[in-house]
Amino acid sequence: MEKSIATRIPVPAALPGLDQCNAGAAEACRTQSASQRCWETTMKVGVYDGPVGIHFVRVTDTDLGVEEGLRVCEAAASIACFAVDVVRGRLAPEGLYRFMTAVSVSRLLVFGQLAQDDPDPGKPWGNVPGFIRLKAIFCSKAPVVPLRVRAMAFDADRADLVVSLAVGEQHCWVCMRWLRRGGRWVCDLCDIG
To answer: Taking the model in full, what pTM does it have?
Structure first.
């Protein structure tokens, strides 16, 4: 039997509806040892039918629990897709204020404005491969599809996540920092690259 740091959790062959699938992932993780610091599973996120791989690591045993960690991962994947669509100009940014701080949303809007504007041929960054790749992502009409979520909880009130997304044939990453403020989780850093 192959040994690894993380425990692999089997996914049912036929994925049921969103609530059943995510409840199944939470139930599978709940059966794991409370002292386990790393786990992997898959779950359905948003309207995308395919499973999204989740890899979650806790620094200590007192960090974020399994069920709440899965909820944060699911929210992060959904908000990452939403944020990329806002930056591409396909959705209005008003919906992000519920899940992100105003500073994060304003930074995304500035980034979207810079990414949407055609560069002047005389500017030095116009022919940089990274900028050309970003233009291909943000000018694409393809839907945003979540692929993977990698998360690390530093304590019970903070988690850093990296969400891998596919936009057509291009891939991009969204790095996020989620903090618990009062009784809810809020994204206070969102970087798309």
So the answer is: 0.76
